[in-house]
């Protein structure tokens, strides 16, 4: 690479996204006091640009505008320019995204916002093309017009920004209205199910026409709805909707059939052509949801998808110290000599390329059949490419194929006169060969930032998969990652989580000069992960740490007046709003997961005030839960768990004894949305016995491992038969 002409302050940052912009001719500042002081001293407006390193349109805007010397000069002359990595600073992103969505009716990244010197927003949008077009004003024009307005109408702009801020404060407030209590579970569950059912795509699964996101929160809700309504037609439909969606996603192009794992979303109704970036938070949640599908259905297909996701994460998103990286980019160079990156280049195939790689004749198949014929038929490959030009606005995928399972293995086998077992072996051989060929291509950019929240989601994925599939290796990987968090993203002196750390030189793990403190989502997803890890490993140290973090979360984020948790701590003057997220999206909103975390924490500790807090969160969101529960499916699910009372499943026995292991295997193999598992091993000095003295009164029956199912610390009769236990766990 040639020596860069420009270097700005971002060169000193750790975030891969900020470093991508360190050689722009724009005089970028990171979010911080130095930039704020410059804006005030020079009485300049701030231009705030927010994105993330694997965002396709962020790359486009950088290439077109931020690398332009001419546009850079306009930006530097009229503005103090600030770059923010939304994954590093979700607090800053949420404040200004709330503004952009409220004023433009949409949002997304890159986010472009113009602020007064005291950080109040007054204009904003997302991607801007560099020059004026037929339908859009260009970025250069917007920059010059706003600079002119600031010169001519400064007071009007300041007044307008103040009014906007007051309106945002008012509309974004979520608090308890009067004497509200948690809404009734049945009514909220039924409404949410009906709303999801109406938006369900009967043919391809999912809950919209296009684009289609995996949204695990919807699928988890449907599993819980089924578990509580198993004997009704609605319950059966909920299960069918969830399993069909998961099957169609796994067959689709959103699933990487060669490199494993899932891309971020599909641009079409058929789950076919994705945006190719792969996000850690999707892999973690999908590993967990496919594990539940396997628990419920017993269908090995779902277990195979779990193994596929975890293979991808272990191989491509794992740091040698134990943490998980954030994401892989959508864009890469098609060949080692290419000058320009293209979206999907690493993942797509030309038909002639596949023929050349898979020329072997297949013995026993219909005459003249090659490996290529079988593979191309099964995965919908077409000579001229299989991507709809409407889904390829930049013509980057012209003549290329995105692999999608078009046929069942049985149909493909019959077509070529093969046994299904033989077909499976042949497809596997093709996949290995294509994987080796793909390894010769330039890889997409890897975002090696490690975030506490997303690592928490991935630990849950490994832990739940390990429990449901009885795979000890997955539990060990989850424990390794949890130990990584405790070493690198936890400050033992303050007892607080940190947001992020980074892969440094020589594969070391580095921290920013001033570490970013953990946000609500970091606490919530890590606490959930530690509970999942305890249930999979029975190591009480994880439980102890989870309860410590729950106390810390209460102290830092709880709103004693309006109830529920704020997303951020108080006391940061640069954050104009303290918000509470009110929508489950690609990730569940932290308050939704907090309800279940608090109920689990109460069961493991006996602190009933946590149960009370869970009810207060539901009360704060009561109106939204009753009117549009489809926006909060994870919180609706938690409402059901709250009202149905959590089952404490307590196994008394030696954790190493075969009879105890049989019981634990049984508990872990059954999907029950409102159970917590613990083992009473007889060690009265252990953490659990100190938290829950009543455990000492539970005994083994006839010297055998014995299970008790307790509600609010009142226990059932002892059970020593695995079959009987299974029946008690299924509602």
TrEMBL record:
<dbReference type="InterPro" id="IPR008928">
    <property type="entry name" value="6-hairpin_glycosidase_sf"/>
</dbReference>
<dbReference type="GO" id="GO:0005975">
    <property type="term" value="P:carbohydrate metabolic process"/>
</dbReference>
<protein>
    <submittedName>
        <fullName>SPT20 protein</fullName>
    </submittedName>
</protein>
<dbReference type="Pfam" id="PF03190">
    <property type="entry name" value="Thioredox_DsbH"/>
</dbReference>
<dbReference type="InterPro" id="IPR012341">
    <property type="entry name" value="6hp_glycosidase-like_sf"/>
</dbReference>
<feature type="domain" description="Spermatogenesis-associated protein 20-like TRX">
    <location>
        <begin position="7"/>
        <end position="168"/>
    </location>
</feature>
<dbReference type="InterPro" id="IPR024705">
    <property type="entry name" value="Ssp411"/>
</dbReference>
<dbReference type="InterPro" id="IPR004879">
    <property type="entry name" value="Ssp411-like_TRX"/>
</dbReference>
<dbReference type="InterPro" id="IPR036249">
    <property type="entry name" value="Thioredoxin-like_sf"/>
</dbReference>
